[in-house]
Structure formats: structure tokens, C-alpha cells
Amino acid sequence: MSSTKLLEEHQAAVKRIQEQVKFFHDAKQHFRVYHGSTSSTRPLSFKRDSIVDTSDMDRLFPVDLEKMTVQAEPNVPMDALAAHCLKHGVVPKIVMEFKGITVGGGFSGFSGESSMYRYGLFNNTISEIEIVLGDGTLETASRTHNADLLEHAAGSLGTFGVVTLLTIELIPAKPCVQVDIQLVQDVDTAHAIFEEAIKEESIHFIDGVYFRKGHIVVMFGRFVDTPPPKQRVLKKMEVHWFADTIEAILKKQPTKEKPHSIYMNVTDYLFRYDHGAFWGGKLAFQHFHVPQNAVTRRLADPFMDSRTCYHALHKSGLANEYVVQDFGIPASTVTQFIAFVNDTLPELQIFLAPCRPAGEIGLSSRFNPRVAEVADQRIFAVGVYGRGPRDPRAFYELNRKLELRSSELLGAKLLYARTYYTEEEFWTIYNKDVYEEMRKKYKAEGLPSVFDKLKADMETGAGKRRPVRGILETMWDKAVGNKEYLLRNEPDAYTLLLMWGASDLDPHTPDRLDSADSTPSPNSERKVQLVSKDHPNQPNSHAYLSRSFVSAKGALFYEAYTKLSAGLSTYGVSRLTAHNDD
Questions:
Q1: Which of 565, 574, 502 has the alpha carbon at shortest distance from 542?
Q2: In what order do the strands lie in the sheet with 322-330?
Q3: What is the Cα 420 distance to its own chain's centre?
Q4: 434 and 442 in contact (C-beta within 8 Å)?
Q5: pLDDT confidence of 186, banded at 50, 70, 90?
Q6: Closest by CA position to 19, among listed 138, 130, 129, 128
Q7: How would you classify the pairing of strands 126-132 and 138-142?
Q8: Percent with pLDDT over 70 in the chain
Q9: Residues 6 or more apart from 483 whose CB is under 8 A from it?
Q10: Does the pLDDT value for residue 485 go beyond 80?
Q11: CB 450 within 8 A of CB 159
Q12: Domain 176-284+322-392+405-413 is of which CATH architecture?
């Protein structure tokens, strides 16, 4: 598609978003931005009549090799962005480890990866944004124009407006990455080795994994053209089970003097943690008591990418017992924090990577004044991922312990994940005065605040545990291409089939599945109505499927729909009728 056509489509989409935002602003009604999918573990839930839909904002503009930038709409995922750039021999300065993380999500949620010791967080590599403010006006922000908006919109979870375009900085890349692996015994040693490696210009990537006490791997990546003679790049399943591949190498006791080197295609390196979502694949096998071997891993492989894992996490409710938290901890206290995590959850593995100091990446003004004490210290990203207690209260208390300990050590957690702070605790960690002043300046007062959004997500009631059914629904959604699993009260046909067969769908209980709201909305659309045999005239005895379910999304999707329609009569459905709810 030509650049002119891309720009025309982009401008039309932005105009639609402006109209939607102005609608909510004039109605004095809060709204949420709906992206279509998520890499957050919060129990998100959206209603069609209270969203601004940006799920189609996934256009990529041509790479500008002179400026070393590329422009992308917010819903462009990392894998598409990387592939687009690698055609020209370049990559973004920061590429998050999961393929499905979007450009907009990385900007609004604070994200980083193994090159952040050099470039900071992903938002620090965004030189300009286009944003629809809370009253529907369109604005731009860069390092020289509305610089405070660029700084504070980052990491704000979309509470300053709707970002519609981002300019991303690029660096030269090569086809392969050489990864040197060392085994160290403790966090202090890892820290010292990291600091030495940071000084080496030839190193582009630095990270590590804390497998268990006394078994910490540190890894250093360099761009190379090809592997040396008699060496090869990692094979598909070695990449897909990267954490296991690395742990097996530790048996060879690689040292600083004799590191073990592996080679990976650059795309495989960038997304080495995608399959299984770090070490979540192993945890999934353990959870369902499935033996891990070459056969079972290959059978499960199509469903182990991070997009499907997050989908399953939401559908199954397993996010209620799996700890997925990321923290930024200053260098002076990172050893204490990891020791605390290890004592509290000795079986958890921990991701570890150095970042630039808080004072260099625009974080100092975000947090309480005490953080200024460590603003010149290097931050370490500490990812805590693993299975927690099944008891809801124990799980809640565990996460609170992690949150509160991180703040005691002058660190902070990334807010893409579940948050258990009280409002008072939250605003003692984050600087409310600065945040509200900036929101007032940029007309965002009518939007939910960060804490409002976090609190609402935790109060949706979503996330009830149903592991088997949730996994089956995820497999179905993947097969038919359904990505709208976050939209509330509009289950897909497979879910309705299961609910009806299990007597979960009670036509006498109208509030179990809400019908369309009578209030006009900028998102009103045609829907499919399921009418019960026993209650054909009861106005609330129906549920809805979104138009996307029956519109043309490919032959497979339509075939699956028609087959289900034909078979639904067995479960008490006599007909499918379509109508407009506006």
C-alpha cells in the first residue's frame, strides 16, 4: 500500500477516534480504550458502549533510513514491527520479548528488554507521539514540543488520551545474535559482571535468569552476520523452550573465562521468551500433570505462543494463582529484594536485566520524593514469574508482600500486571500532585485515573478459575480466529454452547448476560440474537454475539459458525436471528 493511501486511512481512523472521544467527553462519561487483545495479567473486561475501539489501528509506515525511525499505529505488535524493520537491516532500539505486545501497549505500560541498559525503556525510544486528548482534540508531543506530555503519557495506561501514532527510533542490525552464557553464584556477582559488560561497545544485549540459589545465568548478546564454522543457530524447539535450553547449558559450568556461546537468528533472539511466556510452558505442563517430552511438547507447541498463553490465562482464571509481576529495583537494594523473593517463593525463577538510572529515563518525577535518593542508581528489572498459592487470600497476601517490599526498597512495580495496593498506598508510591497537574493541563481530567483503572480491573469479577474449560475455549478461539475475548457479556458461540449445556445460561436470569444498552453509543453494531425455545418472547432471554463473529473473517470462521448454528438446536436454541440494537 502506498504511503499516501496509508496516511489517508490513518487520518480517517483518527477522525473516528476523535469523534468517539468527543462523544464521551460531551456526555461526561468515562471510557476505556479497547485494543482487541492484551499482554496484561489484570482481569480486564470491556463493555461496547463505554470503549473507544482502536483494534484496527495497526498500520505501519515505511522505514526512514535517513532519520533511522519508523512510524507505527498503537496496535502494531512487536513481531510485525520487527519483521517490517529487519527487511531494511534495522530494528527498534527496544523490542519487547513477547510478539503480541503492541507499540501502544509498550509505550503506555512501561516496557523494556535486554537492551534497556543502553537505551532505557521502550517509551524512551519514542521520539514523537500523536494523541487524541480527553476532549477529542488532536495533539502531538515530542522532545521539543509538549515534552512534558510525551514524558507523562508514557507509562500512564492511557490516562492522558488515546495515542494514535508513534515514531520509533531504530538501530542497525545483523542477521544473527551470538549469546555468551556464564554461570554465577549470587546476585552481587551478577551485578558486577553486568557493570563490566555494559562498558563493552560490542555487546548489545544483557540479561540473566535466577533459576535458584547458586544457579544464576548471565547472558550477553552481540550482533553477528553468521555463526562461525561448525556452529549452528538454535533449532525451533530449542528456541521455543529457551529457558530449558539455557538451564541445560549450566551443567557445563560456563565461566567468565570460558563462557558457552550459542547462536540465534535475530528474530529468534528478540522473541526467545515468547513461547511459553518465559518458563510458563513448563508450569502449564506441571499444572495439568502432563509429562514433558519431545512428543507432548510438539503437540502443545501451536498453543504455547505468548498470545495464546495470555488468552488462556484470562479465559481459565489461572491468573488468580500465577504470579506475573515486574519490578524496577535500584542497584543498592536489588540483592535484598531478590533474597526476599527467593525466601518467599523459593521455587520461582526470576528474570533479571539492567536498565539506565531512573533520573535518566524520566521516572524521577513519577514517584514519591524518596525515590530521588536513588535517582542516579542503575535500575534492575526484576521479573517474578511462577505459580503461587491456590488459596485466593494467600495469593492476595503474597502479591501484597511483593508490592510493599519493593516500595520499601525504593523500587516500583510495572502496572501492566495485577495491582493490590490500597488507594492510600498507591499514592504514597506515585506522585499524585504532579500526575493530576499534568492531567489538568492536557484536558485528561474526564478520563479515569491510573488508580481508577487498576481498581476497576480488579473489581470486574473476571478471572474465576475454570482451567479445563478455559483452555478448551482458548483452543477454540485460536482455531476460529476470535480475538475479542476481553469484551464483556458477548461470549462466543462455543462458550454459549458450553454454558447452555452446563445450565449456566439461565433465560430467567436476565442480568447473567446483559442485552444491548438502550443508550446510543459510537460503537453500536449489528449483533446476533440467540432465542430460547422455551422463552421465545421473553425480552431478556437472549444473549448476543458481536457482528465480528458472523461477518466475513475467512472461510474457516464462517464454516465453524454455520456448523455451530446447525447444531445449537440440540441445546435449546431454535433459531439465530439478526437485528440492529441501535
A1: 574
A2: 260-265, 176-184, 215-224, 205-212, 349-354, 379-387, 322-330, 412-413
A3: 18
A4: no
A5: very high
A6: 138
A7: antiparallel
A8: 74
A9: 36, 37, 55, 477
A10: no
A11: yes
A12: 3-Layer(aba) Sandwich (3.40)
- Residue scoring higher pLDDT (257 or 174): 174
Output the CA angle 428-156-396, nearest 5 degrees.
55
Do the Cβ atoms of 226 and 235 come closer than 8 Å?
no
Q: How far apart are CA 281 and CA 155, in angstroms?
A: 28
Q: Which three cell numbers stand for residue 190?
A: 551478577
| Residue at 330: amino acid letter | P
Q: Higher confidence at residue 540 or residue 221?
A: 221
* C-alpha cell belonging to residue 62: 515505511
Average pLDDT over residues 480-496: 50
- Third-level CATH fold of 3-172: 3.30.465
All three cell numbers of 201, joined, read: 561497545
Check if the beta carbon of residue 175 is closer than 8 Å to that of residue 226. yes
Please state the pTM of the whole predicted model: 0.78
Domain ranges of the chain: 3-172, 176-284+322-392+405-413, 489-580
Which cell numbers in the block locate residue 45? 473486561
Question: By C-alpha distance, which of 314, 270, 425 is closest to 45?
Answer: 314
Of 66-70, 213-217, 408-412, 529-533, give the lowest mean pLDDT range.
529-533
336 is written with which cell numbers? 535484598
Q: Which three cell numbers stand for residue 128?
A: 514523537
- Banded pLDDT at 42 (limits 50, 70, 90): very low
Q: What are phi and psi of 218, to 5 degrees?
A: -115, 140
Specify whether the CB–CB gap between 412 and 406 falls below 8 A: yes
pLDDT at position 317: 64
Q: At what angle do helices 467-480 and 493-501 cross, to 10 degrees?
A: 150
Higher-confidence residue of 104 and 520: namely 104
CA distances from 296 to 224, 237, 469, 487 (A): 34, 12, 20, 32
Q: Please give the angle made by the CA atoms of 309, 314 and 318, to the nearest 5 degrees.
A: 80
Task: Indicate the residue type of 383.
Answer: G
The pairing of beta strand 349-354 with beta strand 205-212 = antiparallel
Q: How many helices (H) and strands (E) does the chain have?
A: 21, 18
Considering the chain, what is the average pLDDT of its residues?
A: 80
User: Which of 225, 224, 330, 244 lies closest to 293 in space, CA to CA?
Assistant: 244
> Residue 558 has which C-alpha cell?
464462517
Question: Containing H/E element for 18?
Answer: helix 3-26
